[in-house]
Amino acid sequence: MGVLYPVEEVLLRTRSRYQEIEVLVLRGFGKTLVLDGLIQSSEKDEHVYHEALVHPALILHPEPRRVLILGGGEGATLREALKHPSVEKAVMVDIDGVVVDVAKRYLPEWHQGAFDDPRAEVLIMDGFEYVRSASMRGDAFDAVIMDLTDPYGSEVAARLYTREAFSLVKSAMSAGGVLVVQAGSSTLFAEAFEAVYRAVSANFKHVYEYDVWVPSFSYMNSFVIASDSYDFASLTGGEAQRRIEERGLRLRFLNGERLVAMRAFAGLRLG
Amino acid sequence: MGVLYPVEEVLLRTRSRYQEIEVLVLRGFGKTLVLDGLIQSSEKDEHVYHEALVHPALILHPEPRRVLILGGGEGATLREALKHPSVEKAVMVDIDGVVVDVAKRYLPEWHQGAFDDPRAEVLIMDGFEYVRSASMRGDAFDAVIMDLTDPYGSEVAARLYTREAFSLVKSAMSAGGVLVVQAGSSTLFAEAFEAVYRAVSANFKHVYEYDVWVPSFSYMNSFVIASDSYDFASLTGGEAQRRIEERGLRLRFLNGERLVAMRAFAGLRLG
């Protein structure tokens, strides 16, 4: 199926080396970043997506200090990661500098100054190459957040959803590190999702799916969360809520109850 | 926004006194009932919608004997209600006999013989008129399930989403009765949802929203559940699961964990 969004205004339409980039105003959803015709995030519900992507992993880790973000050009993933007071360093690696420039200019509501945070380092390069170097120098990220375009999209992104890529990611993580991967829709694109899930499972001990409805996507977005040390299924809603409060996280969508609820819809398949 | 569904086959396209009725085969979703251009339920995920509609209310009630269904022409709501072994009588009232005939002929996977169950009574008449008579004769339904087209749709349905209608419904219920109402999307059509919620709240003590993603709808469908005696928010996942098992319910989607999870997404608003 396809979704039709009434476009109220075209703020930008351009093309980088990697993709077509649009900033549109969509009726009902406001300002929206669209890459290769697919909605990445809209003003009205980007907080749902970004909070659901970032916080389960960072809450699961007792004290995340070093965070790596692959993709996340809008800067909202960076914004959410930096909310955790224990974070000393957040490295964001996006291959497409044009997207980052577009975000800086057109999407201030997304990054909200995150790019200027002294703890943030933004690198424009291929995430695969970054992860390879990081694994070789024995980097020790406590959390890795993969916020890439969908696994059934471009070849550049596809390479980061492989067993080999997750193995490199793991080598660049601390022993108690937590990985989270945005992985499209496990219901509508079950095959692609399952390939990602298997590739992660080949590398980590505790691996789970969780899902959140992002209205502008028209579907529940699926995530894969993984760690050798921390078991996401054992994190109770009460404990999650306690950590949210303890860390002073100011969230608009996520709370302990919703964190647990997002786990319950894993494995929803058609027919 | 609008959703485009590739149509593989048109099995039926007709018009009743009340609405345009289509039975289509949609790519990815299979055979699908469409009324006035809006998807009512598809072969691949009608179980998600119908289990989420029926069972929270019937599980919340300790021993539902008499059930009233308003709408539900496909017969799948009836099918789910009849799964509860305590149910002695299930009255289904649909205004549109053509929809029921179409369901009998084209949608056997939906009703699965429910129309022939000796406990079922199917009436073709205006639900509002039925409820008015039932309230006058002091009927005592333990559960009322309102499975109508959306509150922002036809005038015929709209009349059943009013404070007056819910007051009549309540008068036709037993003291411990439970009401559940399909109420569109509280996120995408917040105003219409809130009007329904307020109208129910004017009549019942314990009133809650819960939501489930129905892939073919492209959104989370919202429900309002209400009772003077039973507090849905107090029903734990463990107790719900215990009742599911005790009653021998064979479900494909719902379990105790998901029942609780459906409550957690209430109140999701854009922006």
Explain how this protein is built.
Chain A is an alpha/beta fold. Chain A has a single domain, classed as Rossmann fold (3-Layer(aba) Sandwich), CATH 3.40.50.150. Chain A is 33% helix and 30% strand. Chain A has 10 helices and 12 strands. A 7-stranded mixed sheet of chain A has the order 8-7-6-9-10-12-11, sandwiched between helices. In chain A, helix 9 (237-246) packs across helix 10. The first copy, chain A, is globular and about 45 Å long. The model of chain A has no long low-confidence stretch (mean pLDDT 97). Chain A binds chain B through residues 1-6, 26-30, 43-45, 48, 187-188, 213, 215, 218-220, 253, 257-258, 260-265, 268, 270-271, and chain B through 1-6, 26-30, 43-45, 48, 187-188, 211, 213, 215, 218-220, 253, 257-258, 260-265, 268, 270-271. Strand 1 of chain A pairs antiparallel with strand 1 of chain B, so a sheet runs across the interface.
In oligomeric terms, what are we looking at? homodimer
Q: What is the H-and-E element order of chain A?
A: EEEEEHEHEHHEHEHHEHEEHH
Query: Termini separation of chain A (Å)?
Result: 16 Å
As a percent range, the share of strand residues of chain A is 25-35%
Tell me the count of domains of chain A. 1
What gross morphology of chain A would you assign? globular
* Radius of gyration of CA atoms of chain A, rounded to a whole number: 17 Å
Protein chain pair with the most extensive contact, residues per chain: A-B, 34 and 35 residues
User: Describe the biggest sheet of chain A?
Assistant: 7 strands, mixed
Arrangement of strands in the largest sheet of chain A: 8-7-6-9-10-12-11
If you consult CATH, what is the topology of chain A? Rossmann fold
What's the CATH architecture name of chain A?
A: 3-Layer(aba) Sandwich
Query: What is the average of the pLDDT values of chain A?
Result: 97
- The percent of residues in helical segments of chain A reads 25-40%
What low-confidence regions of chain A span 5 or more consecutive residues with pLDDT below 50? none
CATH C-level name of chain A:
Alpha Beta
Structural class by SSE content of chain A: alpha/beta
